[in-house]
# Entry
Amino acid sequence: MNVIIGPNGVGKSNIIEAIALLATTKSFRTAEVLDLIEDGRDFAAVEGELDNKKLRVVISKTGKRYQCDQNPIKLSSDFVGLFQAIVFAPNDLLFVSATPKARRRFIDSELSKINKKYLRQLSEYNNHLKNRNALLKTEKVDEALLEVLDEKMADLMIAISEDRKLYLEDINNSFTAKYNELSSEKAEVILAQKSHCQNIAKEEIISQLKNYRFRDQVTKQSNFGIHRDDYNIIFDKHEADSYCSQGQTRLVMLGLKLVLADLVKIMTTETPVLLLDDVLSELDLVHQKRLLQLINLNNQTIITATHLDAVLADLNKNVIELRRN
# Structure
C-alpha cells in the first residue's frame, strides 16, 4: 500500500495517470494525446520498472513509441497487457452520462487489456472504417471498393460483437454482488449493451450496410456498424443516468471497477495494480472501509489523498509526500 499525499495541484494525479498509461497506452483524463506533453517540450516519456521488465512509452507529435527492456515494440496491441492496472478516479462518475463514444472507449480499453485478439480485430476494423469514411468523402464513390470493405468489416463486426457480448456476461455475473458488498443497500445492477449488430448473421450485416449506403454517401460517414454501439448501466430496471443519486452512481462505478479487477486476475492470472486517485475523499467513513476491505490491500495499491484521514492513518502503508517547490 502506497499513499501519495499533498495539496491539490501538486501532481498526484499525474503520477496515477502515468502509471495507467503504461497499462493502456492512453490517458484516463483526456482523449487528446498531445495534452500529455508539457508546454514548450517536444515529447513526454513515461518509464516504469516491474519485477521482471522495464516499460517505456514516448509521446510526441508524430505519435507514440513503445519499449520493453529497451527493445522497440512496433504495435500498441503488443504493448498493451504487459502491465495490468485498474484506475479508480472521480471522473468515473461521468461514464453514466458520457457520450456513446466515451463509453465505448472505456469498455474497449478494459477488454483490450485482457484479450489481445479483440484488440487486434478492433484495430483492423477501425482502419477499415477510416478507409471507408475516406472513400465516402470522394467525389465519385468506388462502389466495388466499398463492397470489399463491407465484406471485411462484416466479418470483424461478428467477431467483435461476440467478444463484447461475452465480456458483458462476465461482468454481469458478479456486478450485482459486488455492488451489494460495497453499498449499504441491495440492488440489481447490470451493464447493458445497445447494438444493432448483436446476434445477426453476416448476410444481414451486408444487407444493412447496403440499406445505409445512400445515407452514408449523403452524410459522408458510415452510419451502421459496431462503432455505433453504446452501453448503459441499469439500476433496479432503471437507467442509472436518470435514476441514481451521485452517491449511488459513485458506488456503482466503484463496483464495476472491482469486477474489472477480478476479471483481469481471472483472465490473465496477473494481479492488477490498483490506482485510487482521490477516491476516498468522496466516500463516507463506512464506504471507505468497505472499499478498502474489498480491494485486498495485500495487492499493490496506490492511493492519492490531500492528507492522511482516519482510515488511511490505520493502514500499514508507505507514505510519499509531494510538496510545492
The two ends are 26 Å apart (CA to CA). The domain at 98-269 is CATH 1.20.1050.90 (Glutathione S-transferase Yfyf (Class Pi); Chain A, domain 2).
